[in-house]
């Protein structure tokens, strides 16, 4: 098994290195290696992946005994949902690209229509594959499957790399374009090597459809990067699960469902944060992209963060303390999905934290007493703190046994129940055991209540209706008592995680749709020099966006299992 | 335990990020952050580490029950030896630096004497600590010890980062200096921001001692980088071992000793390779650093590699096949040292492989049919192949049970022995079991022979001398027969690993002492642009050197246990 993993890992490593070398060559030497060369390489890889995926769908997975086990932790609904969501956005993006190329067909080559078509095919097939097979623990053709998966991971990573470099180059061009336009007041149109074709002969004709294509293309770009990263993480989990045998002892839990009951302050505070955030985001976008960006808009933007981030940090710290107070048992079973979640959270946070440290050093070295600079400084410090506390909170939450608290409540409930219903000791014993089994499976409080009632009714048909009614009432009372006793911790956890979910969503939306103050405020840019800061942002920003998205997923899981 | 690891890991991450931001600021903005600022930060970190190490040596480790277990795999002699070796070179380096600063005291500040002194103190204390405590599994003050270890790791990483950037900047300056000198024929002395002080007023007076200091400083620099990396790896193993309890079932094996017997071709071929390599290295150094480097010296250098690398790859592949044929049991016990070795091997190889891929793309895109270019192309491809095959061979070898082959030989020997000495069945049984225990511990063939003789003599004192002599002779004969039958595989493994050890030593020596053809041939430099290729080499070269050193260690282990 180790040999197969090593071999497929080496394959992926080589593909990734070759592709990165290609992409870097394209960036640093536009003449020798063009974007078309990179696209040809990526298309070959995509076609290979497509062949493997189709072979897997039609061949490998239909063999007898191919999928004996399914990993219940792998591919939760929010991950598969985001694959579908981002996948459809990516398809839309490619369609816009095809449409744009068709309009400007007189100065574009055929490849700019062919490659997006391959991309669409690839995205569709991959999304279908991930939707249906993300839980598989495949038991046949181990090594071939591993290699196929690793090839697909490598292709997605390269697509991500290309998208990131392209995306940020795009961003950069736009911001420079604006600067140049300001300076020359529209006299000399800026021509970058990448844009030269378009600006000289291939400008978009002034039709609505072309503008829509162009604008949609720019807006949808970030979703493509997210799509690649999410696919990589799902594929990695499948790869880890190849050949894994799950003992039948761990029956797949019926996952607790997402319910809104019992939380008030979290959604309220969170929604307020989201609404204010959207307002600030829109003001920022109008101000920063319109004329010369003035200080005021940055002050507003950073102030919003400086208010929001401490709230989030405090919430995460309180949540961690409650976790420690609860003393639930830790879930130490092997679980590739969770290990990956933890690694991704920590790894993706590095991007944001690294950028913050660079900002801190730049500000401290220049002038930390200026208003805007002191705002950026506190923003950076708070961001580091928030990232760390939130990571600790989520990792803590993911490692808890989800159902022990519920079972505990049941036990306390039973103690009261025993005192009341001591007249049927023998039957009560069997009921207890069967009920405990149930508690392990269905943790929803209301469902439990109902089931308890059903159960007791079924077991005590001989007992007279009066006794039964009395007993149920007393049992429910003692149950409710223990529930309300335990639930302040659980309720607080739910409030906190719901609040954090909403905050992370707004912090995810803002950079995704184009608010990049780290680039636009110009402070670090002038300190580190243009190209260095560009490289740092290039590395940090997409990871930061991915971090927000991933922590939304993690926090939802904490919310559900709390 | 997990919480402590997470917390100390976060501490280290923050320190590393802060330090990297400082160092990058120094590189990209010389005015705001100077080298002195970075030195101050690092000195503070060093003093903190020193305090912790001294507290550990005098406090923590002397507490009752502090060190109940020792990890026999951690800190093998070659690692601790290289810590001492590189440590002493680093101390020498710092002494040279102090001496150099004292000579030029009129234009250098006091800090340039103070900081190297702190560094010397730090290196000495750390080397002492690692020499004596690298096997510790500390059982008290877990979290404090973890934080201390992580702080020390972070400090070493930052020292490495500073050394790497400084080292490569130095290299770069030298090569540019040469270019400039050639162009202006000594008219205008080149003044780099870093060297400006020295070149304007602080030139070295023409005394021998100053030249020695200057030259020794340049020569010893690479050892400092290696020292930091080796310390990091040892500290990491100690960190992983904090709080670990080793079941007393696994008694520490008496490690097999390094012996040269039974290998002929490996040392012979290897020594030839080393001697030729040294000749080529010296010719290269004379030619490349003297006047304008001509093509011939590069052709010679790359030809040497192109002959050597396939030999090494074939050796590693044959070794891997023999490993597969042997069907020894795999050693699947938890072993942090080995996991780290595997990760370091794979990680360090990435540097070399990445650089090779960049070379390949650059050559294929320019002109692969030129003689030198085709040589570099095949060199790069072969280097990737060699790295991968060697990694597979070493990892395979590290995961074998070292003593099973020896035990097998004993069993075959016993079969013959039983047929001869069937007159003492009861005593033979007890002897067998006690001997099997022995085989598990001492695998050296000659020692076994001697012990066997001792043992049998002790157990069979009643038996007449005639019978004894006869039996010993027959047993030895059958033993020798089985030994010679098994040993072709083991001998081949030893030949191969010895050959690879010598090859890796020469491939380690050449870049360490200044042969950097990837930088000096100018091909990739002109393709990617100066600064990009500079960054790539910056990342790849030190990792490549570390990889060679680390694989020497791994191969020695494979040799010993084969």
Total domain count of chain A: 2
Oligomeric nature of the chains? homodimer
Low-confidence stretches of chain A: 185-201, 404-448
Distance between the termini of chain A: 36 Å
The fraction of residues in strands of chain A falls at under 5%
Which whole number gives the mean pLDDT of chain A? 77
Tally of helical runs of chain A: 18
Structural class of chain A: mainly alpha
The chain pair with the largest interface is: A-B, 36 and 36 residues
Please estimate the helix content of chain A. Answer: over 70%
Order of helices and strands of chain A: HHEHHEHHHHHHHHHHHHHH
- Main beta sheet of chain A, described? 2 strands, antiparallel
Q: Determine Rg of chain A (CA atoms, Å).
A: 28 Å
Going across the biggest sheet of chain A, name each strand in turn.
Answer: 1-2
Number of strands of chain A: 2
The shape of chain A is globular
Biased composition (Basic and acidic residues) (chains A, B): 444-455
Region (Disordered) (chains A, B): 416-455
Biased composition (Polar residues) (chains A, B): 431-442
GO molecular function (chains A, B): proton channel activity
Helix and strand topology:
2 copies of one chain form a homodimer.
Chain A: H1 2-28, H2 35-58, E1 67-70, H3 77-103, H4 111-133, E2 136-138, H5 142-184, H6 196-200, H7 208-241, H8 265-289, H9 295-326, H10 336-366, H11 371-398, H12 404-420, H13 425-441, H14 445-459, H15 465-512, H16 517-520, H17 523-528, H18 530-561
Antiparallel strand pairs in A: 1-2
Helix pairs in contact in A: 1-2, 1-5, 2-4, 2-5, 3-4, 3-7, 4-7, 5-7, 5-18, 7-10, 8-9, 8-15, 9-11, 9-15, 10-11, 10-18, 11-18, 12-13, 12-15, 13-14, 15-18
């Amino acid at each position: 098994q180790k040999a197969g993993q090593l071999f497929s890992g080496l394959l992926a490593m080589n593909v990734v290195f070759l592709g990165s070398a290609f992409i870097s060559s394209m960036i640093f030497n536009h003449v020798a290696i063009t974007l078309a060369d990179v696209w040809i390489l990526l298309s070959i890889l995509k076609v290979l992946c497509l062949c493997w995926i189709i072979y897997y769908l039609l061949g490998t997975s239909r063999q007898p005994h191919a999928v004996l086990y399914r990993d219940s932790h792998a591919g939760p609904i929010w991950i598969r949902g985001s694959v579908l969501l981002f996948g459809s956005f990516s398809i839309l993006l490619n369609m816009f690209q095809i449409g744009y190329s068709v309009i400007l067909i007189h100065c574009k080559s055929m490849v700019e229509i062919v490659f997006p078509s391959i991309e669409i095919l690839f995205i569709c097939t991959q999304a279908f594959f991930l939707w249906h097979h993300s839980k598989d623990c495949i038991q046949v053709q181990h090594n071939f499957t591993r290699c196929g998966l690793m090839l697909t991971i490598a292709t997605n990573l390269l697509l991500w790399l290309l998208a990131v470099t392209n995306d940020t180059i795009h961003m950069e061009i736009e911001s420079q374009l604006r600067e140049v336009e300001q300076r020359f007041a529209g006299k000399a149109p800026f021509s970058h090597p990448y844009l030269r074709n378009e600006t000289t002969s291939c400008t978009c004709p002034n039709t609505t459809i072309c503008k829509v294509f162009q604008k949609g293309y720019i807006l949808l770009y970030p979703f493509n990067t997210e799509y690649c990263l999410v696919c990589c993480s799902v594929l990695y989990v499948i790869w880890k699960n190849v050949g894994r045998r799950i003992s039948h002892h761990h029956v797949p839990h019926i996952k607790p469902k997402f319910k809104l009951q019992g939380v008030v302050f979290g959604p309220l505070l969170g929604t307020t944060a989201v609404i204010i955030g959207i307002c600030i985001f829109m003001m920022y976008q109008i101000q920063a992209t319109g004329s010369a960006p003035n200080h005021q808009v940055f002050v507003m933007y950073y102030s919003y963060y400086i208010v929001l981030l401490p709230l989030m940090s405090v919430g995460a710290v309180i949540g961690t303390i409650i976790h420690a107070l609860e003393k639930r048992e830790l879930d130490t079973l092997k679980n590739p999905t969770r290990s990956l979640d933890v690694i991704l959270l920590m790894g993706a946070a590095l991007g944001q934290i690294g950028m913050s440290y660079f900002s801190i050093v730049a500000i401290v070295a220049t002038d930390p007493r200026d208003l805007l600079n002191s705002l950026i400084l506190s923003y950076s410090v708070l961001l580091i703190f928030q990232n760390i506390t939130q990571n600790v909170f989520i990792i803590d939450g993911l490692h808890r046994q989800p159902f022990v608290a519920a079972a505990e409540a049941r036990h306390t409930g039973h103690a009261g129940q025993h005192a009341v219903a001591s007249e049927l000791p023998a039957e009560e014993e069997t009921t207890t055991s069967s009920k405990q089994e149930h508690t392990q499976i269905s943790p929803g409080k209301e469902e439990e209540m109902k089931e308890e009632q059903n159960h007791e009714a079924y077991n005590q048909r001989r007992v007279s209706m009066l006794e039964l009614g009395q007993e149920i009432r007393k049992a429910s009372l003692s149950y409710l008592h223990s529930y309300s006793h335990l639930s302040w911790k659980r309720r607080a956890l739910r409030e906190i995680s719901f609040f954090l979910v909403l905050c992370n969503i707004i912090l995810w939306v803002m950079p995704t749709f184009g608010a990049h103050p780290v680039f636009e405020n110009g402070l670090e840019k002038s300190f580190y020099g243009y190209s260095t800061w560009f490289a740092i942002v290039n590395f940090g920003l997409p990871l930061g966006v991915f971090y927000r998205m991933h922590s939304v997923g993690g926090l939802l899981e904490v919310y559900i299992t709390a």
